[in-house]
Amino acid sequence: MTSIVVFDYGFGNVRSMVRAVANLGVDVELTSDVDKAMAADGVVVPGVGAFAACVEGLRRAGGDDMVYDRLRERKPVLGVCVGLQVMFDTGYEGGVPAEGLGVLGGSVRQLKAPVVPQMGWNTVDAAAGSTLLKGVERERFYFVHSYCVSDPTPEGRVQGLFEPDDEFKVTWCDYGSSRFAAAVERGPLSITQFHPEKSAQAGATLLRNWVDSFATAR
Question: What are the positions of the active site (predicted)?
Answer without folding.
Answer: 81 (nucleophile), 195, 197
